[in-house]
Design brief:
The chain is α+β, with helices and mostly antiparallel strands. It folds into 2 domains: 7-228, ANL, N-terminal domain (Rossmann fold, 3-Layer(aba) Sandwich); 231-334, ANL, C-terminal domain (GMP Synthetase, Chain A, domain 3), CATH 3.30.300. It is 28% helix and 28% strand. The strands form 6 sheets. The chain has a 5-stranded mixed β-sheet with strand order 4-5-6-7-8. Strands 9, 10, 12, 13 and 14 form a 5-stranded antiparallel β-sheet that branches. Strands 17-18-19 form a 3-stranded mixed β-sheet. Strand 6 (131-137) and strand 7 form a beta hairpin. Helix 1 packs across helix 2. The protein is globular and about 60 Å long. The two termini are 32 Å apart.
């Protein structure tokens, strides 16, 4: 997503964020958490390190996500809280532990990447446990949280956390009915250590302008609809990958999908759909399905089928690796 930036965050910001997380999520001092996410990232700092420092909440720390070991740890230490990323929950839904889900592990939180509805639904059907979506940013701490026990609409990340004010600002590049998410809270950082362009700085008016598009529904839930930086320019017409991904995920047999921009000699960029599917539909079937739901310029011109989507250590789709894999496969298909 670009060159890494150092964020100037003060002690008061970290404490305010942690207190908000502890209160909203109901993390107790006597809880034991499973630490399968990196402690060096803001998610791990806010949900694991700060509760430990502020109220002594213990954690079971491992070097990496090892599903079998995580289940053993949960039972051995009677862990109640598991902050994870969507990949982890997708894995467990597809590969249920032989002994079942540990009865003690009741508070399950997902952040770091979008939690797709089919993953949340499959996990709940398998284990009877709701995954609670959590939305935040390194620059601003926790923003929204889904504390309820009922299913939520696709793209929902819950309601604004206590003390967080969200405003959806108009943006001409946003998908229809959406805008750019702006927020204010006591956990918004001072800014970046070195800001190259002050005019384009997201720290504005005492708040933070995220790189996400979204809207607030009638129930006050924040629905994310795409990213600012991911729009694909197809012959001068912008296409938001999230819109194409939503359509493809509604197609029977599609397990996962990521839509990217790929080079195109005539159009500058083209829509590339990377699909994971057990049913293995044909390229023609995929295009016909898209044609029934999307404008012609939004239909993927390049489609590749992969056994899985590569992910980073944070559980996000590794787009750099994915585009390399996809382009290589397209070249092989041509030859």
């Amino acid at each position: 997503t670009g060159v890494p930036k150092a964020i100037l965050t003060g002690e008061a910001h970290l404490v305010a964020d942690a207190e908000r997380i502890i209160e909203e999520m109901g993390i107790r001092a006597d809880d034991i958490q499973l630490a399968a996410i990196p402690l060096s990232h803001s998610y791990g700092i806010g949900n694991l390190l700060m509760p430990l420092l502020l109220q002594g909440t213990s954690m079971v720390l491992r070097d990496a996500f090892v599903p079998k070991q995580l289940m053993l740890d949960a039972r051995a230490f009677h862990a109640r809280v598991f902050p994870g990323v969507p990949y982890m929950f997708g894995y467990f839904a597809a590969n249920p532990p032989p002994e079942g889900w540990p009865a003690c592990l009741q508070l399950v939180i997902s952040a770091g990447a979008p939690l797709e509805a089919h993953v949340s639904q499959a996990f709940r059907e398998q284990f009877g446990i709701k995954i609670h979506s959590f939305y935040g940013a390194s620059e601003a701490g926790g923003i929204a949280y889904d504390a309820g026990d009922t299913a939520t609409p696709a793209g929902s990340v819950g309601t604004p956390m206590t003390g967080v004010t969200i405003v959806v600002r108009p943006d001409e590049d946003a998908p229809p009915g959406s805008g750019r998410v702006f927020l204010k809270s006591t956990s918004v950082a001072f800014g970046y250590a070195a800001a190259d362009n002050e005019d384009d700085c997201p720290f504005q008016e005492g708040g933070y302008l995220t790189g996400d598009f979204g809207h607030l529904d009638a129930s006050g839930r924040l629905i994310l609809t795409g990213r600012v930086s991911t729009a694909v320019n197809v012959a001068g017409r912008k296409v938001h990958p999230a819109e194409v991904e939503r359509v493809l995920r509604s197609m029977d047999g599609i397990d996962d999908v990521c839509v990217l921009a790929a080079p195109d000699v005539r159009r500058g960029q083209q829509i590339l759909a990377c699909i994971v599917s057990r049913r293995q539909p044909t390229v023609l079937e995929v295009r016909r399905f898209c044609a029934a739901h999307l404008a012609p310029h939004k239909i993927p011109r390049a489609i590749v089928f992969l056994p899985s989507l590569p992910t980073t250590s944070r559980g996000k789709t590794d787009r750099t690796h994915l585009i390399a894999l996809a382009l290589k496969q397209l070249e092989e298909d041509v030859t």
